[in-house]
Amino acid sequence: MNKAAHADMLIASAREMIPFLKEKGPQHDIDKRISNEVARKLRDNGFFRICQSRENGGFGLRPSVLWRVTREVARGDSASAWILSLAGLHPWVGGMFSPQAQDEVFKDGTDAVIIALTGNVGRGVDVQFDGSHFTLNGKWTYASGIDVADWAAVLVEAEVEGRKGRYLLLVPQSSFEIDDASWNVLGLRGTGSKDVYLKNEKVPVHRCISWDDLQQLKFPGSARNKDPMYQIPHTSLFVMSVAAAVAAVGHGMLDLYCDALQRRIPVGLNHAQLEDRFSMAELGKAASRLDMAFNQLMHDVDEMYDRAEAGYAFTIADRAKYRANAAVLSEVVMESVNIMVRNIGGSLLPNGPIERCFRDIHSMASHFLLQTNHAAELYGRALMGLELPPNARI
User: Fold this and answer.
1) Of the residues 109, 150, 372, 374, which has the maximum number of CB atoms within 10 A of its CB?
2) Which residue has the higher pLDDT, 226 or 276?
3) Where's the Acyl-CoA dehydrogenase C-terminal domain (predicted)?
4) DSSP state of 224
């Protein structure tokens, strides 16, 4: 099967899951995690193999395929879309580690659900290195999908051979103590992004890569994996995984909005909202903005992939542009959702699908990498050749 046909098959499989996900989604909010049943169906459909390298038994497809699949999943359940959009990308990260570590993560070519704990989410973390192992103690917050994960990539600071640095370590999910009572939030309740703890966890050095080397596309996994994804800047692709969830759930809200318009008679009017010209105009504008935002995402991620395949060296301005675009397109999606919700007024019922989707997309768009002014400032400074702030994530 060629790659295009394979992608179409995966997208069709996700579309077939929509009724099932609509049924299961509300319970995710109650349970504060996606169910094992939903996670298993996502895995059985091969969605976590999309960005898993062929060398490790995966499909080795473009990230844009993953996020087209995510858009269909989001039409059924926003929490599942969040987990898939982020964790579905992370087999790419797993492929950055040593071949020995990859053999553990993707044993006999199996898939792997890998979450990332990298955005300054450590609390009271202590790391010791004895030359062959790191010993980890501490707490990490926002562990999205930890209940259904196999591994977590944990970013820590440690002193190695007399020098302090940042390192990404692979830790099995079974090593974490999960605080099930910790996830009490306005939106994304169903993602289970809980607090987790490690106590005297020993991580062998072969499951470690330097964070600074990773940012320069230097990692031991390149000895095995040759896909163009491994030549794409880490943050540029990671920020798109967050924006992809926002863009996907925006289309889920569009479905809900159109369904509400089909049956709604607004308070104060004596005719169906479908007959209101201004409501139709607002619908058309919102749908157009959502389409443009998603297409911008697809353009950027495919452009990155094509450039990497051609051996292009990404500049600081390139990286800053991709981060700014991700933030701006997320803002466009959120504004479109706000317009739709405003125009159904009294239909915004407590604990309903529209209310849930509205809460979730606002929480997604508040991610630190999608803060528009900060991302746009980095891009503006890069365009003018000005120095970027220390440790700027691009």
Assistant:
1) 150
2) 226
3) 245-371
4) T
Q: How far apart are CA 204 and CA 11, in angstroms?
A: 38
- Is-contact 373 328, C-beta < 8 A? no
- Using alpha carbons, select from 155, 170, 156 the residue that is nearest to residue 128: 156
Hey, what are 148's tokens? 């259904």
**Does residue 162 or residue 90 have the better pLDDT?**
90
Beta strand segments in 186-291, E: 194-204, 208-210
Annotation: CATH topology of 3-97+105-109:
Butyryl-Coa Dehydrogenase, subunit A; domain 1 (1.10.540)
What is the CATH number that goes with domain 232-383?
1.20.140.10
- Token pair, residue 192, equals 């289970």
Give the integer Cα–Cα distance in Å for 22 and 125: 39
Is-contact 123 141, C-beta < 8 A?
A: yes
SS3 165: strand
Please, is 182 exposed, middle or buried when counting C-beta atoms within 10 Å of its C-beta (0-12, 13-18, 19+)? middle
Task: Give residue 274's pLDDT band: very low, low, confident or very high (50, 70, 90).
Answer: confident
How far is 56 from 242, CA to CA, in rounded Å? 25
Residue 352's pLDDT band, with cuts at 50, 70 and 90, is confident
Angstrom distance (rounded) from CA 242 to CA 240: 5
Q: Which pLDDT belongs to residue 213?
A: 94
Show me where the domains of the chain are located. Answer: 3-97+105-109, 113-216, 232-383
Give Cα separations from 150 to 101, 115, 116, 143 (angstroms). 13, 8, 11, 12
Q: What's the pLDDT score for residue 346? A: 62
Helix (H) or strand (E) holding 353, with range, is helix 353-365
Q: Which are the contacts of 147, defined by CB distance < 8 A and separation ≥ 6?
A: 33, 34, 178, 192, 194
Question: In the predicted model, is pLDDT for residue 351 greater than 60?
Answer: yes
Residue with tokens 């700014």: 324
- Rounded to whole angstroms, how far apart are CA atoms 100 and 163? 25
